[in-house]
Specification:
By secondary structure, the chain is of the alpha+beta class. It is built from ten helices and ten strands.
Length: 251
């Protein structure tokens, strides 16, 4: 394989946990087919029902899986960061997904074509194993989100959402508007504003226009419902650890 200079690689595929966990031979086999793409804010990567042509492995940012209703309302059912992938219908036997995918926090991803992913699945190697384990973890997240939205207070839902987002950004600070949060949670903006105000009053977060920062993570983890920990533990159980890769690493 032709070596790539260090200057060229400002990003590294191994900043994605699934790609980082692949054995050397498996990784090098797909490396020529990985293409780095930007994830601009609010980009709809896939609409509901679209034919899925690529699998995306985020290395930064957050992608939301969103279900929309006929009346135009919608809500987020799952978050994807550099622990996972977007476009699982490619290897699950379907051509499309009932949800749309939208970039919630800007970042970058490596995309892999449908053809290459199907080839890798036919080999039955580690990429197949990790892809199926990730799908199981994602199902846990979507199921727990549905339960959380039905049974827990907005205060707890917002804490869960903030913690999950910060985990995927590897930061305690997120750039997002209250309107975006209300759309993702499927609730009124006024309710989000009131809840954020209370969390700030209680010293858990600092909020300013388009910005939220967790100030007291321990207090937020004590306040959140059990849904956050259920999902977190399932991801830890099933998936390889999220890497702290050096973007300048020579491949």
């Amino acid at each position: 394989m032709k070596k790539t200079s260090k200057a060229v690689w400002s990003e590294n595929p191994k900043q994605n946990s699934i790609l980082a966990a692949l054995p050397k031979a498996d990784f090098e086999r797909i490396l020529p087919d990985l293409e780095l793409v930007p994830l601009p804010l609010k980009w709809t990567m896939l609409e509901s029902g679209d034919h899925v042509r690529y699998l995306y492995f985020p290395i930064s940012g957050i992608v939301s899986l969103i279900y929309a209703l006929e009346d135009g309302s919608s809500s987020e059912v799952a978050l994807v960061g550099n622990e996972g992938m977007v476009g699982i219908s490619i290897f699950m036997g379907g051509d499309s997904m009932p949800s749309s995918t939208e970039v919630q926090s800007t970042g970058k991803a490596y995309k892999l074509s449908r053809k290459v992913m199907k080839r890798e699945f036919s080999l039955g190697g580690k990429l197949q194993q990790y892809a199926l384990l990730y799908t199981q973890a994602l199902i846990c997240q979507t199921s727990q989100t549905a339960v959380c939205n039905q049974h827990h207070l907005l205060d707890q839902q917002l804490c869960r959402w903030l913690l999950m987002s910060m985990d995927r950004l590897h930061s305690e600070d997120i750039v997002i508007t209250q309107e975006m949060i209300s759309n993702l949670l499927g609730v009124r903006r006024e309710s989000v504003t009131q809840t954020i105000g209370q969390l700030q009053k209680d010293g858990l977060i600092a909020s300013r226009r388009g910005h939220i920062k967790i100030i007291d993570r321990a207090a937020m983890e004590a306040r959140v419902c059990e849904c956050y920990e259920v999902v977190r533990k399932e991801y830890l159980r099933l998936l390889p650890p999220v890497p702290d890769a050096d973007p300048a690493t020579v491949l």
